[in-house]
Fold:
Amino acid sequence: MKKRKKHQTRPVAESDREFVLAAAAALFRERGYERTTVKEIAEACDMLPGSLHYRYPSKESLLVDLMRLALEQASSALARATVGVSDPVEQLRRGINAHLDLLVDGSDMVYVLLFEWRSLRGEARQEMIDLRDRYERLWAAMLQSLASQGIIRADVDLNLLRLFGLGGLNWVATWFDKKGRYSLEDIGNFVWQLIRDAVINQADR
Amino acid sequence: MKKRKKHQTRPVAESDREFVLAAAAALFRERGYERTTVKEIAEACDMLPGSLHYRYPSKESLLVDLMRLALEQASSALARATVGVSDPVEQLRRGINAHLDLLVDGSDMVYVLLFEWRSLRGEARQEMIDLRDRYERLWAAMLQSLASQGIIRADVDLNLLRLFGLGGLNWVATWFDKKGRYSLEDIGNFVWQLIRDAVINQADR
DNA sequence: GTCTATACTCTGATAGAC
DNA sequence: GTCTATCAGAGTATAGAC
Structure:
């Protein structure tokens, strides 16, 4: 790979794969997968389409690999945010903030994983769904743990709570405006209070 | 326009415009805007690309017109669901169900309005954002009315409530499965109870 | 591993007869 | 208004030298 002139130099610890995928993710996020050409991706990496093809046999395979990395990022971000936090309610609060941060501000790949699923068909689509499910299972486990400790009211459907909650958080990426009236922290706090007031037992708040 | 053979006959009251846009919306929903060709749209209407071009000078202009119609559908569905309902809390409940129903089961156009916004650029994009804002304002008014009657707790940020709530509802369209364990009614009830428990004053539940 | 050059396909849009 | 025919451009992917 040639030295990159116009772009940030690549942190030495990062692999070539991550560099390429990060560049692609930024383009996919801004322009969408279909409207981004392989030529543009190659340019963003200071290489030519042929070199990109050496790494990935097709544009679609690049997207799939990008989504694999996105899952790793999301999972480890969630783990980092909650590890070592003993209070399970606080764990939930931090998880919400971590998800929001990563999606809106932290990782173009996670954004792409969540918003470009319609670009994949057949087998690749199924793999992407499996990736998402693995991330959702982390959330399911967290909620389940809260419920079995009696912190979440027993009559709350945990699946629907997870689906609706993450859905609302994901959608933030469609309207969030850095210069807008709400910071990510404002939004995280709001969601946290809403969930707390709706499903957490009084004694545990 | 030729008689349609393979497709449902068009209800006489519906305009030609609506027929074409409905066909396009179904394709856009299933395959996405970029992956749908004008040829496919024309075929779905039993015409040829040339005839479609007589109606819309470009593929993009068709999408914009589709979104205009989607806004009308969404607005009137919301109005229909809440008109004549005197209890404002019940209005909110019905609004939630109406939005869910329309998006997931009722109108491909509304789905397209919400999920294909990234396909538009520049001026067309701005018009689409304006269309969405007009729909959101209907919700804002409903929530504002509830708040000024003291039904929604005074400390709740109505903008964030609307954005997060509609976001969670919109996201349902990405995971809902007709054969799954949850019916639209289940989901509507869940969301309604969540919002109620979180922000509606005890006395008004 | 990277480059140059190109093959092949598909697409949106147009022109003009009827 | 609808048709036939076609264009110009873009896009992915490939081949093969270096």
